[in-house]
Amino acid sequence: MKSLNIKIGLITSLMVLFTACETIDYEDTNVNPNGPTAGISSQLLTNAMISMTTILVDETPILYMQHITQGQYPGASRYNILNDSYDSWYTGPLMDLNRVIDLNSDPETAEDVIAYGSNANQIAVARIVRAYFVHYMTDKWGALPWSEAFMGIDNPQPVFDTQESIYNFLFTEIDEAVAMVEMGEPGPTGDYLYGGDMDTWITFAANMKMVMALRLSDVSPGLAQSMFEEAVATGRLITDNSDNIEYTYGTDDASDSPWMDNFRTREDYILSRTMVEYLRDNQDPRLFEYAEEARDSVSPVTNFPGDIDAGYVGAPNGQVNGNVPSYSFIRSEIIYTPDYPTPIFTAAQVYFSLAEAASYGWNVGGGTAASLYEDGIEASMEYWGVDATGITDYIAAHPYTGIDEIAYEKWVALYLNGPEAWAEWRRLDAPYLEPSAFASDPRIPVRMAYDPSIADNNEANYNAMVGFQGPDNNYTKLWWDVN
């Protein structure tokens, strides 16, 4: 009886407690009074823009392009990175940018986030940065899930869009983003690079459109010319180094240059013999600006007056170059100055693009292929600190004769801009780069293969993609790489 009473009492107590839980109004007990009640679009934009550094200092294509090579551990110089995952792009910066766009587009949240800049300007910058990321991704992998991406559990296995359709989307995206800009209204406060300066973002977009247009010069020359000439017509193409668009880093460990991080405790990257010898053979004064003299050796071959180039020594690509002090390092300011900027779009890059376009007979707003080629050399050398005499002498010794000269000079001018140098080398098939003799497959990759998980988790759409793009390996050419 005593046991029964205890059980009845326990049940009664539980019923009372349950009933109380149902009727008590806890109001804001579980709401953090100091936390945000809506998405903070400025933080989302800032977080996304940080991923630009992944593109700007992407060592793998820099190694492919033989601007530099590796020391003790030459894996990527031997092309042993066979595949890479794009997942972090979708779950990280692209998701953040989509959220910025959504918050500023939805009437229920737009008023909350207008404190972080004009709604239209926040959307415009998010779309421009998103286009920059997607352009990098498609030029790395090719086809991508896009039209059915970001649908979550509603569609966990999206189709792959062709690279052609992605490029078409990007051209539209850029144009629509620029058309949204509200000059005179506040730019996004999360823009730590350009302080919400919408004029700079319009220039960014125009130069990106130019780069994208030229990429299609072989596969779709009509569209390439149309888009290129539209970029020219904006009047926004960079033709002076003072207008170069750069990424400026911070001075603390969290925001400093990736190059400084690379050299903080190790010395893994040294000048490639290919770059050093090309510059030496051409008596190119940029040799002394791109590199430092080797600490422990001299070159057995010299070509400059007075043997002033003797201290500049390049390493064989893909070899185990264990004694790194025997070779030239990247310019010390780049690797040891925490806030040394990385170029995104430069006057030299623009001039060489204009020179190529002029050679096709496109409307470039003035100048000839030869004059614009010379302008490109001058802009590149001025950027790196070459004096006027050095520039004049070099141009006189290396006159324009055709597209191969443009391709070579662009490769030199894009020093350490791995993704762009790699893309242009694939498109132009110049200059000649000898594949590493130490690679198991002595072919320089022309794309990155997808992570194996893609085939496992999205088999049907992966197989369909292979059907229209080709085998998922490092040597299947992208849509625009037709030569």
Any overview of this molecule?
This protein has a two-stranded antiparallel ribbon. It has about 475 residues and is mainly α. The longest helix has 23 residues, at about 120-140. The chain is about 50% helix and about 5% strand. The N and C termini lie far apart (about 95 Å). The protein is built from 22 helices and six strands. α6 (about 95-105) packs antiparallel against α8 (about 120-140) and α9 runs antiparallel to α10 (about 200-215).
Quick description:
By secondary structure, the protein is mainly α. The protein contains 22 helices and six strands.
Structural class of the secondary elements? mainly alpha
Order of helices and strands: HHHHEEHHHHHHHEHEHHHEHHHHHEHH
**Helix coverage percent of residues?**
40-55%
How would you name the oligomeric state of the polypeptide chains in this document?
A: single chain
Q: Tell me the radius of gyration.
A: 27 Å
Q: What is the number of E strands?
A: 6
Task: Give the amount of beta strand, in percent.
Answer: under 5%
Shape: globular
Low-confidence stretches: 1-31
Q: Give the strand order, joined by hyphens, for the main sheet.
A: 1-4
